């Protein structure tokens, strides 16, 4: 199967080669001719790929030709990226050049160094000539193999973001009888022997039948929940490559921490303390092996009598070895339920019309899925994007569409084949994650960007296009268990284990997972481009030189020696865990675009990290001992996403003009240190959520104006926090506070505004909101801990778009509301959620006399807590039709 899919990756690399060569050709005199030749050869070879894709199944020579082509394409891309780096390096270093007195010394050093432009051009010319020779040989073999040029058809369109509709993953068709049967087994305590406290119930069936879905239905049942005092879901998925153990996963989920250096006895004692005398309901999902079950069972016996374990597994012997007292063998889903599932997916909103012809073909497709829900789901999602009779018929007659036994991967492969070409690369890359891993959408898209998988000419649109790719995979059922934020945007997802199997199969030898080895000496590194290390114990590794020259992704769960990764010259994505030091030689990783470090002992980063000019994402949010980032970080002009710990200071961050996110929080320092709010001046690409803490350090209104918040048009959530003790820290008058906040001009497209800890007497809320057109999208306002604030205007009337208002811990607010000058704002037309907490001195709620009796016609939730003299609140809001009303003194 992998051979037939191989061509897609080659095609995308060749496209990038042509683009890179064309872009650099005007900049690299001395190499122009070779670059033009490479571009021309790559374009020519690409025209025969469709023919090669068909013939490789029958001809080993074509398959070998494709393999050589792919390796040559990777090498060419690496060289061209080196050229791009050198171009970028010169541009940045000219901008940040040294002082005049150092120029002569620097010129002399550059003349004798590898970074001398003349030396570099000679070196690159030689390497590009070598690549061209390889491509010439490949082009000659193409003729010998008689590969025919074909006009490539238009690629399948990426999902139209305007038509995206997320299916309800919680809706399940059928399985009511099976659910009732499992619940009956759970509640039957007669099956638990007196001398034992726990019994096992197994759900057995091959992949894709819905074992996990059935277990979830039971686990989430309200009546079942009432019968147990402790519930936990443990996904084991302990296949050969995961590096997981049953005991380790039970400990990780129940104790909510990593086992790290704990031995079995230590883990056992902690689990016993957690579970002692509790009636347990545990689900062990996707169990492949009974290894360590005896140790786990001994621990679980400390629970109360009647405790139960539900096990889902593909293997009946696992159920037997775990001593299951009941075993449910899951069978095919009925045809009627399969058709209902398919119909909802295929003909749902945005899909084709359910004509008689399409329904007839659809029913044939469902029959070929043979009652496997995962296959039905995948095919329904695929057909949703097909409109014509011919498209439906072509898929119905496809050789892959016939699920026999547990070969569901064939159907998933068919769905994969119909993905747009760039999305295919993005999907197969997901194989780097462990099975059942929670995949964070933003992080995944950033890694796709680091590898150049996202096709977009406008750099500012890259995140949007990546989001479209992600949605395309969601709509085609390659992702599941999506989590949404309050704005209904997807934040994370998982992959079904069979979908993960497909991604691994497509990746083939390019992905290597090390999980149970003590040395890399006997590991076949061959064509490895992506390496993940998932060992439970620390190992010291050294990697062969040929791997160091090829690797593009390195992800390590455990600490590895510095010299194991500093030679990964062409690495794009690098995850490091538990390291104590980052060597200055990290600057050699010139193509690195994504760097994530998790370390509780790392105290500094070398200044040389500022030479990683291609770096787009830097995630050091879990480096709590890292106190400061050097001001040379301003040279990272391509840095788009910066995640830092609360304790980490960053100097002169205003130079990072490409920044789109600073997370989780931007802590302000002194303006003169390059850490003030004025550093935001040129960061107009910031988007999403901007959290600004230490606002008490902003003492000059001119600094606020310099920040130009009104130009941050992509910031939709703004949180400003004045910390405790702000009055003494600011050493100013109340007027000073007013001048600072009055100088604030908020981002025009704000959706949410949060103000916490403001120590002044007055907030210019009226002024901010009076011009309705300037904040027309604002739907949520939170005001908290503003201890000196004395009055809150009727913002629920001034801001007609407001849906959520939370006011809490206002020690001096006596008056809520007041006269509203707007004649059109006599009611809060959209307010749905109103919360008032800890306002002990509140005396009155003032409304216009002309206000309608029900000022809050659409209020759904009202919470009033510790507002003692709020007797008139219940009267004022008595006509609230809310679903949830809480009035607590």
From TrEMBL:
Entry's Pfam families? Answer: LRR_R13L1-DRL21, NB-ARC, Rx_N, WHD_DRP
Instruction: Enumerate the spans annotated as R13L1/DRL21-like LRR repeat region domain.
Output: 580-645, 677-810
Among the GO biological process terms of this entry, one is: response to other organism
Record-linked SUPFAM superfamilies: P-loop containing nucleoside triphosphate hydrolases, RNI-like
Which InterPro entries does the UniProt entry name for this protein?
Apaf_helical (IPR042197), LRR_dom_sf (IPR032675), LRR_R13L1-DRL21 (IPR056789), NB-ARC (IPR002182), P-loop_NTPase (IPR027417), RX-like_CC (IPR038005), Rx_N (IPR041118), WH-like_DNA-bd_sf (IPR036388)
Tell me one GO molecular function of this protein: ATP binding
Report the residue ranges that make up the Disease resistance protein winged helix domain in this protein.
432-503
Q: Which UniProt keywords apply?
A: ATP-binding, Leucine-rich repeat, Nucleotide-binding, Plant defense, Repeat
Enumerate the spans annotated as NB-ARC domain. 176-347
Q: Describe the location of the Disease resistance N-terminal domain by residue ranges.
A: 10-98
Q: What name is this protein filed under?
A: Disease resistance protein
